[in-house]
Amino acid sequence: MIKKTLIALFALILVGLSVTSCKAILPKSNLKPSDYDIGMTYEKASAQDKPILAVFYADWCTYCIKFMPKLDKVRNIYKNDINVVLFDVENPKNEAIVKEYKISAFPTVYIIDPKYDYRSHIDSPYLSSVDSLGKEVSKYINLRKLVKKGTSCSN
User: What is the pTM of this model?
Assistant: First the structure.
């Protein structure tokens, strides 16, 4: 009797561990954009020598919800070259920057480079896939490297 109880208990523990480990590797799903912890503050990002991928979103926006996993992948690919900053357009603390960039559709994505006083809007069709967004980010990163190289030659 004790042997059967111990076997049942051991089996239960194994099932519990396998369920827990499966939960740990499940992809993010049905998350609001604000549930993603993939950005940093604008102030912190501006202080670094990297361009910024600024994403303006609203939690209720269906397109934003679908876009966030793509953004997360692009951020992981280019994390050494670009910072990501998320702006919740409904948060009062973001009101000034939302007005400055005249945000009216979501998600809206800009590449901002404070070092070169540069900002460029990434059009919606480029937000449809990791590849197309990644290509736009990569183009700017390569352009920035050329500018840095040219600047260092003139000094």
Answer: 0.77
